[in-house]
Input
Amino acid sequence: MTRDDDLQTLLLAVHALTRIAALDTQTEAPAAQWRTLTLLRDHGPQRLGDLARLSRVTQPGMTRLVHQLDAAGLVERRRHPEDSRVSVIAATPEGLTALDGWYEQFRAALAPHVADLSDSEWDAVSLTASALSRRVGMVPTATGHDETPDDEDDADTTEDRGALVGAAREEEVVR
Output
């Protein structure tokens, strides 16, 4: 198996685990909702067009999603801090609470599917999650939140057994 094959296998496995967990949570909310809230949490308030680019969707698609998120109280429009003529989209405290709850459901749904991994397999998952997270500018932490590379004091530890969820989360963010 080549390195390219390994990367493809990893991506497909993470995608499959993400879909399994999404189905197991039986949430009605689209994955785009969670991806958008994650982007707003990680990157701060964004102009609509910038948010669409970050999420890799069309601007009309993001406009529809933001209207739905706004109606649900998960995001709000604010004035741009440097240009009052421009508005930005920001996650509300309720949106961030909902996102945290979804990640908890997601982790709980994933747990049975990976419960029988050996310690050495968990070490491999943790090492892979950390290495790939750093490559995309994210570092999973023990709290389940991501930090920038400047904050990576103990990024190489293998204590965080939630690293698999972090990898799935990054896959969602990067997609």
Q: What stands out?
A: The radius of gyration is 17 Å. The first strand starts at residue 75 and ends at 79.
